């Protein structure tokens, strides 16, 4: 078996195909270990958009996102044997993406671009609700920019990526206690930046 086709045409076609919601991570990993290209395409479709948003929030350079995401997924393809199943597959993959993002930041010190990362709207909401929801999110993200990188990371992974503390510790390669301490200080600083108020879900 060769390597998966990561050409622009192949990736765009895979990205647009629907993903089954009941994919079994363990079975998917076993199929990828067996060099099943279809399984890799399923994983690609399932993770690409989430990884792209995750990476963009770290590198702040849109032109690097696809490169970092593809590098991440190639590690998954090449090193599935290193996934032992003692965490969620998503935790392992996002840990790889985190390290690849940090490496990209070290290697590219060019000025940051405006990523326009939060332009998505929900078709299920009215235009007024969408506008209010987007504005609240923009205010929150703007406030988060006033935090240190470590504090932004734990907020993003907890509230936007929905990882637990142990999973965040695995992704960031630090003790759980460190994650909890960073979350405490992040929430305190965020409350100060938002004039004493926090959204109900934080």
Automatic annotation (TrEMBL):
<dbReference type="InterPro" id="IPR013324">
    <property type="entry name" value="RNA_pol_sigma_r3/r4-like"/>
</dbReference>
<keyword id="KW-0804">Transcription</keyword>
<dbReference type="InterPro" id="IPR013325">
    <property type="entry name" value="RNA_pol_sigma_r2"/>
</dbReference>
<feature type="domain" description="RNA polymerase sigma factor 70 region 4 type 2">
    <location>
        <begin position="138"/>
        <end position="190"/>
    </location>
</feature>
<dbReference type="GO" id="GO:0016987">
    <property type="term" value="F:sigma factor activity"/>
</dbReference>
<keyword id="KW-0805">Transcription regulation</keyword>
<dbReference type="InterPro" id="IPR036388">
    <property type="entry name" value="WH-like_DNA-bd_sf"/>
</dbReference>
<dbReference type="InterPro" id="IPR013249">
    <property type="entry name" value="RNA_pol_sigma70_r4_t2"/>
</dbReference>
<dbReference type="InterPro" id="IPR014284">
    <property type="entry name" value="RNA_pol_sigma-70_dom"/>
</dbReference>
<dbReference type="Pfam" id="PF08281">
    <property type="entry name" value="Sigma70_r4_2"/>
</dbReference>
<comment type="similarity">
    <text>Belongs to the sigma-70 factor family. ECF subfamily.</text>
</comment>
<keyword id="KW-0731">Sigma factor</keyword>
<dbReference type="GO" id="GO:0003677">
    <property type="term" value="F:DNA binding"/>
</dbReference>
<protein>
    <submittedName>
        <fullName>Sigma-70 family RNA polymerase sigma factor</fullName>
    </submittedName>
</protein>
<feature type="region of interest" description="Disordered">
    <location>
        <begin position="108"/>
        <end position="129"/>
    </location>
</feature>
<dbReference type="GO" id="GO:0006352">
    <property type="term" value="P:DNA-templated transcription initiation"/>
</dbReference>
<dbReference type="InterPro" id="IPR039425">
    <property type="entry name" value="RNA_pol_sigma-70-like"/>
</dbReference>
<feature type="domain" description="RNA polymerase sigma-70 region 2">
    <location>
        <begin position="43"/>
        <end position="109"/>
    </location>
</feature>
<dbReference type="Pfam" id="PF04542">
    <property type="entry name" value="Sigma70_r2"/>
</dbReference>
<dbReference type="InterPro" id="IPR007627">
    <property type="entry name" value="RNA_pol_sigma70_r2"/>
</dbReference>
């Amino acid at each position: 078996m060769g390597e998966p086709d990561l050409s622009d045409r192949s990736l765009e076609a895979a990205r647009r195909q629907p993903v089954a919601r009941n994919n079994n991570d363990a079975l998917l990993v076993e199929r990828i270990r067996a060099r099943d290209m279809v399984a890799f395409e399923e994983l690609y479709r399932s993770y690409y958009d989430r990884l792209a948003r995750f990476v963009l929030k770290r590198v702040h350079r849109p032109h690097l996102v696809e490169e970092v995401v593809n590098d991440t997924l190639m590690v998954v393809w090449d090193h599935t044997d290193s996934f032992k199943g003692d965490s969620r597959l998503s935790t392992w993959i996002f840990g790889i993406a985190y390290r690849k993002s940090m490496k990209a930041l070290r290697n590219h010190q060019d000025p940051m671009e405006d990523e326009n990362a939060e332009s998505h709207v929900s078709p299920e909401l009215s235009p007024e609700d969408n506008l209010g929801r987007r504005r609240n999110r923009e205010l929150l993200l703007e406030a988060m920019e006033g935090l240190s990188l470590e504090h932004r990371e734990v907020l993003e992974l907890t509230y936007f990526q929905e990882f637990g503390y142990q999973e965040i510790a695995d992704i960031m390669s630090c003790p759980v206690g460190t994650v909890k301490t960073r979350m405490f200080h992040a929430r305190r600083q965020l409350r100060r930046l938002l004039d004493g108020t926090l959204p109900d879900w934080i």
